[in-house]
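lol ok so funny story. i was supposed to be doing the assay writeup but got distracted and ended up predicting the structure for this chain instead. priorities right. anyway since i did it might as well share w the group, maybe its usefull for someone
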Amino acid sequence: MTKEITKRLADFGYTVLPADAHAIEFLIAKWSDYVLDFCNITTIPEGAKTKLVDKICGEFLYYKKNSGQLGENFDFEAPAKIIKEGDTSITMSYGEGGKTPEQRFDNMLTSLMQSFDKNLVKYRRMAW
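and the output, tada:
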């Protein structure tokens, strides 16, 4: 599963570093255990694996962003909001009807992490 997570993170522009291995392995164990416990099963269903990869990637990027460790590929600073030249002024729409790059990134993380349990309900078994 580490290979799929590494590829999926690359899709989002994040290059996995050797220092990330422990965090990724931890998240794999954490969410794999969660799926098995939530569903009361012994193996992760094939249909749940892609959602599990997205959940792990979303949480990984969320923690990286909040700890300031995303790297140079993720720059959420707008270069300028207002540009004035003489009597002409141009205002960028960041935060005023449009979304900033950071808001779009946060929305993507939310979509990766939300509704995870809803997708697992069909795999649940009753515990005796």
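The helical segments are 2-11, 21-39, 49-66, 101-113, 116-120. The longest strand covers residues 82-85.
back to the writeup now i swear
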